[in-house]
Design brief:
Number of domains: 2
CATH class of the largest domain: Alpha Beta
Number of helices: 2
Number of strands: 13
CATH topology of the largest domain: Outer Surface Protein A, domain 3
Distance between the termini: 65 Å
Strand order of the largest sheet: 11-12-7-13
CATH architecture of the largest domain: Alpha-Beta Complex
Order of helices and strands: EEEEEEHEEEEEEHE
Largest sheet: 4 strands, antiparallel
Shape: elongated
Structural class: alpha+beta
C-alpha cells in the first residue's frame, strides 16, 4: 500500500471540497482550484477527511494512487496557504523591477527582458536584496513560472552570475589555471 496514498487529507478551516465523480473542486480563502482524476482511483469524503483509494495493485494504479493524493493535498494547501518560490539575481548590472504587474529584468542582454505573469501568479521584487518572489495557489504553475524566469539566465559555474533559487547551490569551477613554465 502506498504510504503517501493511504494518508487521509485533512481539510483546514475555510476549505470546502466538492466531489463530482472524478472531478475535484477545492475552494478556500485564497481562491478556487479544479482538477479531474482518472477512474483508476476512487475519492470519498469521510468525517471531514478526503480519502483516496485504489481497487487493485497494478503498477499503473499504484503510481496514480500516490500521485492523486499528492495533487489533491497540494490543491488544499494552495487555496489555504498558497505557494511561493524565490529567485536570487546575482551579477554586476543584473537587476529586476516591477512595472505594474510585469516583471522587467536586466540580465546582461542588449535589451530588457519583460515577463508577464499568467493568471493566478503574482511577482514581488526586493531590489535591495535582489530577489524575485513568485506566488500563487497552484503549486505546479508557480514552479513552472519560476523555471521559465530562471531559464532567461541560469547561473553559470565560473562567476556564479545569473538567476538561481534561494536554496540552490551552484557548483563553481576554477577556470583557466594559466600557463605553467
Amino acid at each position: 500500500m502506498s504510504r503517501v496514498g493511504k494518508k487521509p487529507i485533512t481539510l483546514p478551516k475555510g476549505v470546502q471540497i466538492d466531489l463530482q465523480g472524478q472531478s475535484v473542486k477545492v475552494k478556500g480563502p485564497k481562491g478556487e482550484l479544479a482538477r479531474s482524476f482518472p477512474t483508476q482511483v476512487s475519492l470519498a469524503l469521510e468525517a471531514g477527511h478526503l480519502v483516496v483509494s485504489r481497487p487493485n495493485d497494478a503498477p499503473a494504479v499504484r503510481a496514480m494512487h500516490g500521485t492523486a493524493r499528492a495533487l489533491i493535498n497540494n490543491m488544499v494547501l494552495g487555496v489555504s496557504e498558497g505557494f511561493s518560490k524565490t529567485l536570487v539575481v546575482e551579477g554586476v548590472g543584473y537587476r529586476a523591477e516591477l512595472k505594474g504587474k510585469q516583471l522587467v529584468m536586466a540580465l546582461g542582454y542588449s535589451h530588457p527582458v519583460p515577463v508577464d505573469p499568467p493568471a493566478g501568479i503574482a511577482f514581488t521584487v526586493d531590489e535591495k536584496a535582489k530577489t524575485i518572489t513568485i506566488t500563487g495557489i497552484d503549486k505546479e504553475l508557480v514552479g513552472q513560472v519560476a523555471s521559465d524566469v530562471r531559464s532567461w539566465r541560469p547561473p553559470e559555474p565560473y562567476k556564479g552570475k545569473g538567476l538561481r533559487y534561494t536554496d540552490e547551490r551552484v557548483r563553481r569551477k576554477a577556470g583557466k589555471a594559466g600557463k605553467a613554465g
